[in-house]
Amino acid sequence: xxxxxxxxxxxxxxxxxxxxxxxxxxxxxxxxxxxxxxxxxxxxxxxxxxxxxxxxxxxxxxxxxxxxxxxxxxxxxxxxxxxxxxxxxxxxxxxxxxxxxxxxxxxxxxxxxxxxxxxxxxxxxxxxxxxxxxxxxxxxxxxxxxxxxxxxxxxxxxxxxxxxxxxxxxxxxxxxxxxxxxxxxxxxxxxxxxxxxxxxxxxxxxxxxxxxxxxxxxxxxxxxxxxxxxxxxxxxxxxxxxxxxxxxxxxxxxxxxxxxxxxxxxxxxxxxxxxxxxxxxxxxxxxxxxxxxxxxxxxxxxxxxxxxxxxxxxxxxxxxxxxxxxxxxxxxxxxxxxxxxxxxxxxxxxxxxxxxxxxxxxxxxxxxxxxxxxxxxxxxxxxxxxxxxxxxxxxxxxxxxxxxxxxxxxxxxxxxxxxxxxxxxxxxxxxxxxxxxxxxxxxxxxxxxxxxxxxxxxxxxxxxxxxxxxxxxxxxxxxxxxxxxxxxxxxxxxxxxxxxxxxxxxxxxxxxxxxxxxxxxxxxxxxxxxxxxxxxxxxxxxxxxxxxxxxxxxxxxxxxxxxxxxxxxxxxxxxxxxxxxxxxxxxxxxxxxxxxxxxxxxxxxxxxxxxxxxxxxxxxxxxxxxxxxxxxxxxxxxxxxxxxxxxxxxxxxxxxxxxxxxxxxxxxxxxxxxxxxxxxxxxxxxxxxxxxxxxxxxxxxxxxxxxxxxxxxxxxxxxxxxxxxxxxxxxxxxxxxxxxxxxxxx
Length: 746
What we know:
alpha/beta; two-stranded antiparallel sheet; 27 helices; elongated
């Protein structure tokens, strides 16, 4: 019986301790603020946007292109800023529940110590996940892991140390001014009879114990003998000191955005995101504290104001296509049904076909055979996974054909990430022809295209798109805003050694003379789902499906030729890097690109319409079917896919009730690429039957060694994922495909 009473006493003491009561208070009162903690916990543990590489931003942060001691230190410093912002905000909000701390020296320090359960839980989660990620994904050794951990701890300690020193100084100043009042109140308190000292009732929180600055248990002091003015003064002076810390974080983020052109200021994205969260949590706390029940109406008013500013073009967050002219508004084309139909008129189609047929003649003159084999390369979307796989496959194809594969290729097209690899390989091939490089097969080029693109993208999104000052740059005599689209292109240009820093027109002569294959960059028009086809030379024969003479049904154009539609906007000045970005604009990750038409249209990822590039290839073949049948021995579609369409993945549905509710809503999203694959494969089969044995398809597919550990669909690849992509080349299926291509060009 005695033991039970002792146990109940200890349990009650634990439950009514300040650390436990603060956690419960947060869940009762601060659900909005806890969302930020949830995002951080879910991100580092791989339960939030893992497929897009969000966890890699925190677990493998890059600074100066390396995951290092310094990158870890910067992230640790930023995490500490977020923790301090959490403490500051909740300290201000919960002032009325912790008045007894005002009578102690260094009340904010004691609050931070007692409010440490959630931050410590996050840090423990972070270290466990980071160590596992470093070992099994980044393939780092023990020494590197220890160095990374020390860097994070150093940054965390420095940041908390700076904040502690600041608040310690503030505490000394505050108590120097309030010392007389505090001493008099304490003297009065000591003279009161003990029977008059009762627990101060509080309907929200009961505290029997709290941790002191030396981590010792202390009972809270009664505060009834202090005036309300005194208590409010103590806390308000701490509030001012706390606000200055948040302003410092805001200035830091502005500075990063302002000077992010310099490599030194291109901090890890995780640091920018965490500091941004620190500002948001402080803002949310301020709104909750000062506006109370007026918070929602105030946010509605703010939204209406921002929407009006957007409609009046006072604020314009839209991204533009770099190199394209936007200033000649009177000459902007009309995006209407009649205008698109006129663009695809028989006369225009015939003119473009004549130009491309001349290019095919030039290609044939470069071949040794009377009837050579003709290759068309299709690459699928899939982030850097697809880019790296496409580059690896193309290098091996160059090897097994003794360097003749690209000579036999007339067209390269596809979607998203795959086009990054294809465009870089084509450029390397051209560099080799000009004598600038010795070989296209060097491993360093695969390493180039597999380098991280995600970190600068998200860092710019936070420090520039959301908070930072607007900065502009010039291209082709036009000015454009530096945003995450610009950061993406700058990093891609850096990763590819500046070789892709060209305009469409720079390829015109080489494509015309068939020195290099033509390339179709695709994107999807957001308003109606049509494809926007970007090419050096107009290709209006792609705009419409072939008509059926036995039917009265006439299809409308479902593609728009970029070069002819924007002929007054200098389409040849479009940067190739921008064309690649338009081709790979995944929603929200990269900004949609709006184009100078009336009305305005914007475009995004090509994969939303055709993730494999087959539609454009089949229409190209159909448009020149007569020429191809007369002048080639075989037409070979080289399909490079980042996924195995025949892979049986089982039932993806979860076993809980929540999944039962949401699965119908996510049916299309979860099966988008499969539905595309089924449809396009079906079309390709019918198309092959129509052309007969002259058309051959050779497929290369990325199949992960472990289906449950496939490389992510993001702009970041870990060393383990890169190794898995390379390993897929050695699968029995892909080896048979390589042998099939080698046999065709002997």
